[in-house]
Amino acid sequence: MTVAKKRLLGLVLSTFLIAPSVFAGEITINSDHSDPVPKKAMGDLIAAFEKANPDIKVKWNNFDHEGYKAAIRNFLTADAPDVVAWYAGNRMEPFVKAGLFADVSDVWSANGYDQQLKAAVPSMTIDGKKWGMPYTYYQWGIYYRKDIFAEKGITPPKTWAELIAASAKLKAAGITPFTIGTKALWPTGGWFDYLDLRVNGYQFHMDLTAGKIPYTDPKVKAVFEKWAELVKPGYFIENHAAIDWQDAVPQLVQGKAAMYLMGNFAVATMKDGGLKEEQIGFLPFPEITPGLPRAEEAPTDTFHIPAKAKNKEDAKKFLAYVGSPQAQSTMNATLGQLPVNNQAEKPKDVFLEAGFTMLSDAQGLAQFYDRDANAEMAKAGMEGFQEFMVKPDKIDAILQRLDKVRTRVYK
Amino acid sequence: MSHSATQPPRRSKTYREGLTPWLFLAPGLLMFIIYVLLPIFQSIWISFHDWDGLGEKVWIGLGNYRELLDDDSFYVSLKNNVIWLLLYLLAIPAGLAVALFLNQTVTGIRLYKSLFFFPFVISQVVVGLIFTWFYAPDFGLFSKLFEWLTGQQLAVLADERYVTYGIIVAGLWPQTAYCMILYLTGLNNINPEQVEAARMDGAKRFKLLWYVVLPQLAPATFIAMVVTVIGSLRSFDLVSIMTAGGPYGSSQVLSYFMFEQALSEYGFRMGYGAAIAVVLFLIMMVFISLFIVRMLIQERNA
After folding, report:
1. Domain presence at residue A284
2. Number of neighbours of residue A317 by Cβ within 10 angstroms
3. What CATH number does the domain containing B273 carry?
4. Once rounded to an integer, what is the mean pLDDT over residues B31-48?
5. B158: nearest Cα among B166, B146, B150
6. CA gyration radius, chain A
7. Residues B176 and B293 placed together within one structural domain of the fold
8. In a domain, A165, yes or no
9. In sequence order, which residues have a C-beta less than 8 Å from that of residue A61 and are 6 or more positions away?
10. Interface contact flag, B137 A238, Cβ < 8 Å
11. A131, B149, B216, B253: most buried by Cβ count inside 10 Å?
12. The domain containing residue B93 runs over which residues?
């Protein structure tokens, strides 16, 4: 038999044998690492995994970030890959409840991740089982202009009274204290979360976002009363409802505003805008109710195994690898975010280091309003927050409307 | 024997008048049934359920519709749809005005015509983005102009009082161009003899336009009306691009409300979305039936 004939035979055979094309040792990963930096981090992760497991081949389908949110619902039910990227907390809950994610508690216990990934245990657990593998998170907090603060003689506020005093001083000097862009709604969630975490504490906030507490509760109203102390004197930039979060950054860069409550990803945009590292300061959200244990916002990104995955064995190997200290160190060095594994190398970036210290002794980690609350509730809630930031006097009507949504959604 | 001799021609006759048209219609009809008719009935069926698109459908009867009647966002959307419908019709006289203006022979008129037609050629998404920048506070052309004139800042897209009108203006830009092109073709077909005759009889300006030109443009007006009414009810892309329904839902329209409830990141209420779609469908049905009835009457008369 000549070589050509052999090839032909091989071709014919392979066409006939196309059905079991997913041979053991191949896993398919669907993810939404479409931006340049996450794409590189993910590519490196896969390469390193294949090197460590030469018998496993990875097929990676990279989706556009927005399209992925709709696509995942289709491919989880129809043609499930072996590993999917998603988010922790209540964001994964619908898939867990619909039986579309597989229980991976054994991967955690076999690798000692219950200890190493302790920070993410609450947000990965539903019904006492773990449903995925966290690989990165990042902190939220107030980023401020160090040079402006120094010029006006303001020390970074540690309490609510100090924050109000600093804001008044800035406003008097013609600088808007806070910049924000609420067109996409979610930036308002950061404010609500932090105010609620500082006024009422972690457990209350979790109960509220889980729908156990009515929005008409006086304790919820107290949160908005604190918020109004910033909204009513005009401590936020005008017209924030017309702009996106990136469009709010120039205000900070041009010195028209001095503070920005945001996730750590905003630092890159600030630097792109022309701010130097020494001009940017980071401060944890100030204390409001004295003595309340400090909880922070730290949205976590995760990998999961679909219940209908064809090659769960190798998918679990991938999850185990993603959880490991070395994989998380490398990946997060590229991402510019924090590793969840507490054995991983500490980040070298000054803001990440500040975040790492802040998160490591936090009492609890919230995932962000639109991940902790049910999706429908989140949408209505954030719309209400936006309306409140424009018309603070309508608070009672807004809260009543939110509670109407809550009673319907969490029935 | 004679029996069998008469049969073939008769069969071929039934073939010609009975089956053949259907055979030719079949591909189109099949597509129409699969992609238009069936989804309509499916939507209506889904609208009676509570369904997140993943789990089991739960039959709740008219529950979705009952909730709709108690939903403030629904009334906001409905109100905005009415505003859209009324103001969008302005595209027809505006398009006629531009068409009359451009219907002359000057050097380079083709270039001017194409420039006026340009907004219809570019995608609605691009139109939305252009107008978003136009209205943008601090650096937008409109904002700068407004600030220069009044000394105040106005963020059109962040103000619930003006946001819908701001988006409609953006929508009128391409729609006017569309109506213009319809009228330009209409003007080409005008009988010059009639105009001549009217001129001789002393008809001038407005009278000439109203009694001689416009009646001849009736078919163009009819088509312009149909596309504008349906276009206004489908207004989705501009709302999605420019405000995503905001601020706090005040620029919602039914089509975007439906998308948001059923398909967006925060939605996946398929039943509720379907119920909104059914309401929108019924509203459209009123207009579509009116147009179809008119068209049938015209065809019968012709």
Report:
1. yes
2. 18
3. 1.10.3720.10
4. 94
5. B166
6. 24
7. yes
8. yes
9. A28, A29, A30, A31, A81
10. yes
11. B253
12. 71-301
Peptide bond into B27 cis (omega under 30): no
Residue B60 lies in a domain: no
Counted domains in chain B: 2
Across the range B36-41, mean pLDDT stands at 94
In a domain, B55, yes or no: no
Q: What is the pLDDT of residues B73-95, one digit of tens each?
A: 899 999 999 999 999 999 999 99
Query: Can you tell me the mean pLDDT for A308-315?
Result: 92
Confirm whether B201 is domain-assigned. yes
Q: Is residue A145 helix, strand or coil?
A: strand
d(CA A151, CA A104): 53
- pLDDT tens digits, one per residue of B262-300: 888 777 889 999 999 999 999 989 988 988 898 899 888
Q: Residue B260: list chain A partners with CB under 8 A.
A: 379
Sequence-distant (6+) residues with CB within 8 A of A397 are none
What confidence score (pLDDT) does residue B288 get?
A: 86
Q: How far is B103 from chain A (nearest CA, A)?
A: 40
Q: What is the pLDDT of residue B5?
A: 46
Q: Is residue A79 part of a domain?
A: yes
A311 and A352 share one domain = yes
Looking at per-residue confidence, does B263 or A201 come out higher? A201
Mutation to test the A interface, candidates B50, B58, B266, B269, most A Cβ within 10 Å: B266
DSSP H or E run through A366: strand A365-366
The DSSP element (H or E) to which A176 belongs, if any, is strand A176-178
Q: Is residue B105 domain-shared with residue B213, that is, in the same domain?
A: yes
- Per-residue confidence band for B53, with pLDDT thresholds at 50, 70 and 90: confident
In a domain, B54, yes or no: no
B63 at A interface, C-beta within 8 A: no
In this structure, what CATH number is given to the domain that contains residue A218?
A: 3.40.190.10
DSSP letter string, B225-281: HHHHHHHHHT--HHHHHHTTT-STTTT--HHHHHHHHHTSTT---HHHHHHHHHHHH
Please list, in sequence order, all residues whose beta carbon lies within 8 angstroms of the beta carbon of residue A347, skipping any fewer than 6 positions away: A332, A333, A338, A339, A353, A356
CB nearest A242 (choices: B54, B137, B269): B137
For residue B16, what pLDDT is reported? 61
The verdict on residue A229 lying in a domain is yes
Same domain, A36 and A69: yes
pLDDT value for B190: 86
Residues A269 and A405 in one domain: yes
Long-range CB pairs of B290-297, under 8 A, 24+ apart, other chains included: B291/B222, B291/B225, B291/B226, B294/B222
- For residue B58, what are the β-bridge partners? B50
Which structural domain range is residue A212 located in? 140-297+374-409
Q: Which residue has the tokens 């009116």?
A: B290
Task: Determine what percent of chain B is predicted with pLDDT higher than 90.
Answer: 48
What total of structural domains would you count in chain A? 2
- Select from A98, A386, A408 the Cβ nearest to the Cβ of B247: A386
Three-state DSSP state, A374: coil
